[in-house]
Input
Amino acid sequence: KAGVTQTPRYLIKTRGQQVTLSCSPISGHRSVSWYQQTPGQGLQFLFEYFSETQRNKGNFPGRFSGRQFSNSRSEMNVSTLELGDSALYLCASSPWGGYGNEQFFGPGTRLTVL
Amino acid sequence: QQQVKQSPQSLIVQKGGISIINCAYENTAFDYFPWYQQFPGKGPALLIAIRPDVSEKKEGRFTISFNKSAKQFSLHIMDSQPGDSATYFCAAIDSQGGSEKLVFGKGTKLTVNP
Output
């Protein structure tokens, strides 16, 4: 089975712009979660989608949004980019969510905001 | 508010030695505790996980010890190898809501010297 794929792998944007990141989960997985990883804050949960519905959301401003399509692929959007949004954005998928399900992470998208 | 505290931040061990990483949590609703291993340029990968009704779980050279009353758990890597050099994250999930929200520790960078 192919793993979780994320595109693009690297992205450079300037402040004020917006960006869309894409995640394709492992085939058959219905839950997709997004995390932000920075040296200072570590790994922080952004949100989780399951069957096209946002099931949980972390403590990030409304500039961060996402969606999930019927084929379980997910996109994350960040509007009005700030310097502090520079991070590695990771997507993880799991079969159906819930207790003890392993989350499989993609390689991440490295976003740099100038 | 950091819900999972991880120590040490960095660890240097000689080949063949034992690596020990500790984590403590506050939220008693957490009911699943995975450890992730992350190599540079890669997403985290599940290493081993434990549920709070078990005090120890061993998989090869990796062992999780869990102390529910103290709300602490630790990862032991026996016979550490240079290939184990990576960043290790402990995490916790409150799965009662059916969500996949992982709460991560800040990570431990392990270096195993040959």
Notes: The CA atoms of residues 30 and 47 of chain B lie 18 Å apart. The mean pLDDT of chain B is 92. Chain B touches chain A through 25 residues (CB under 8 Å). DSSP finds no helices and eleven strands in chain B.
